[in-house]
Design a protein that fits this description.
Blueprint (H helix, E strand, L loop, with lengths): L2 E6 L7 H8 L5 E4 L8 E5 L2 E5 L12 E4 L4 E2 L1 H13 L8 E3 L3 E2 L2 H14 L11 H9 L12 H22 L7 H15 L3 E2 L1 H10 L4 E4 L23 H6 L8 E9 L2 E3 L12 H10 L11 E3 L1 E2 H11 L3 E5 L9 E10 L2 E3 L6 H6 L1 E8 L16 H14 L3 E5 L7 E3 L1
Parallel strand pairs: 1-10, 1-11, 2-5, 2-10, 5-7, 6-8, 7-9, 11-15, 14-16, 15-19
Antiparallel strand pairs: 3-4, 12-13, 16-17, 16-18, 19-20
The structure holds guanosine-5'-diphosphate (GDP), 6-O-phosphoryl inosine monophosphate and magnesium ion.
């Protein structure tokens, strides 16, 4: 069955948006299955830059239907503004499909995200403060409001009244905040419901029928493997499953429909927010990655922490996602370096780790064991044929392939759609 999962293998911002945009030219559907507007996916087409946080990146390719499936948490205001932004810029999002089962991010989720982070002080997660964690918390506590609830004003009001009574107690008594009033929230969200009505549907059924008709489905992961709630660097993670399994639970399809799992890996590494990062650099090399790679958050504008590629982590991503191939991005950024380091193992308290350590304590205290390979120090950003890459760049790619045991089928050398080597 022609369904392909595209997901992040690191801590996010690997370039999933541009990967999905590339693959969506052959896809009938591009499906977001988890996360919310904590995602920031960038696509650059002939100098024009699109930053999307809710609408799947496949929307830019004509003929690809963007789908927001049940596992996503939706901030309706953000979704509507993205629909309007796309329309204004000449991209037609009218075919968008939104799952009636998706959960809604409410104003108290955003508020709680902010006050809980403040409460954590130095132990904060560094969330995007979009209300993602609190929205998923309510979903699992069975207190969430779903898109479908917005279409029954009585049910919506009853549910909101119940949940808001509790949230207001938490906001006022625990966090010393002002309570929120139900009236304005009801009014605001009922207006959103009206705007979103044309898009709302049963997306699981839609995709099932599409696959039965031989259509191609592309799943677009947000966040990444190491930010996964179950398999990431907990608690410094997001509140959903960006790993391959999440594509199935989040969209309501079974595993047999998947034939490819493409992992997106940046040629070096970045992380926003707090948490362990063994290959992080605090020197001029890290600075170069930030500057040359433009490593500032799409959503929050925050400076991303940067470091060398970590093959221990990448092999872990291969394992937990059953990756079938890898799309390597931002190789051009490494053109600056005389030599390039790659972590192949960690050491911690006298022990060597080839596998990603189970314990957070180990990960915090480990030192990377590096291999050093020669750089190429020449501009590769116009190269589209693998054989035209400098031999050092080819060796770097082949070295990674050899170490992870999965083929690298694409290498991007610039943010533009055309700056791509397909092998
Ligand atoms: P995502 O969240 O995984 O979709 O990634 P982001 O869009 O947040 O971050 C990736 C950034 O790198 C964006 O600004 C892209 O335009 C840019 N980008 C993607 N591929 C390349 C590449 O091959 N080279 C360079 N220099 N930039 C790239
Ligand atoms: P894309 O899809 C990078 C990080 C936040 C924080 C942690 C939890 O663009 O790759 P959250 O707001 O989700 O509760 O924050 O996860 N984070 C991301 N980092 N890229 C993202 O998305 C991210 N989404 C969340 O910085 O450390
Ligand atoms: Mg991003």
């Amino acid at each position: 069955m022609p369904a392909t999962i595209v997901l992040g293998t690191q801590w996010g911002d690997e370039g999933k948006g541009r990967v999905v945009d590339h693959l969506a030219k052959d896809a009938d559907f591009a499906v977001r299955f988890q996360g919310g507007n904590n995602a920031g996916h960038t696509i650059v087409v002939e100098g024009e830059r699109f930053a999307l946080s809710m609408v799947p990146s496949g929307v830019i390719q004509p003929g690809c239907v963007p789908v927001i499936a049940s596992g996503v948490v939706v901030d309706p205001k953000v979704l509507i503004s993205e629909i309007d932004m796309l329309t204004e810029r000449g991209v037609d999002p009218s075919e968008l499909k939104l799952s009636a089962n998706a959960h809604v991010i409410m104003p108290y989720h955003r508020k709680l995200d902010a006050v809980m982070e403040r409460h954590l002080g130095v132990n904060n997660i560094g969330t995007t403060r979009k209300g993602i964690g609190p929205a998923y918390t309510d979903k699992y506590a069975r207190q969430g409001i779903r898109i479908q609830d917005l279409y029954d004003p009585k049910i919506f009001e009853d549910k909101l009244e119940l949940v808001l009574t509790e949230k207001n107690k938490i906001l006022t008594r625990v966090y010393n905040q002002l309570p929120m009033e139900i009236g304005p929230i009801l009014e605001e969200y009922l207006a959103y419901a009206e705007r979103l009505a044309p898009y709302t549907t049963d997306t699981s059924l839609l995709l099932f029928q599409g696959l039965a008709e031989g259509k191609m489905v592309l799943f677009e992961g947000a966040q990444a493997t190491l930010l996964d709630i179950d398999h990431g660097t907990y608690p410094f993670v997001t509140s959903s499953n960006p790993t391959a399994g999440g594509a199935l639970t989040g969209s309501g399809l079974g595993p047999k429909v998947i034939d490819k799992v493409i992992g997106v890996a940046k040629a070096y590494l970045s992380r926003v927010g707090t948490g362990p990062f063994p290959t992080e650099l605090h020197d001029a090399a890290g600075e170069t990655m930030v500057e040359v790679g433009g490593e500032f958050g799409t959503v929050t504008g925050r400076r991303r922490r940067c470091g060398w590629l970590d093959l221990v982590a990448l092999r872990y991503a291969v394992r937990v996602n059953s990756l079938t191939e890898v799309f390597l991005t931002k190789l051009d950024v490494l053109s600056e370096f005389e030599t390039i380091k790659v972590a192949n193992a960690y050491t911690s308290l006298g022990e060597t780790y080839d596998e990603f350590p189970r314990q957070q304590r180990v990960l915090y205290n480990c030192a990377p064991v590096y291999d050093e390979v020669p750089g190429w120090q020449t501009d590769i950003s116009a190269i589209t044929d693998f054989n035209d890459l400098p031999k050092e760049a080819r060796r770097y790619i082949e070295y990674i392939e050899h170490r992870i045991g999965v083929p690298i089928k694409w290498v991007s050398v610039g943010a533009e759609r055309s700056q791509l080597v397909v092998r």
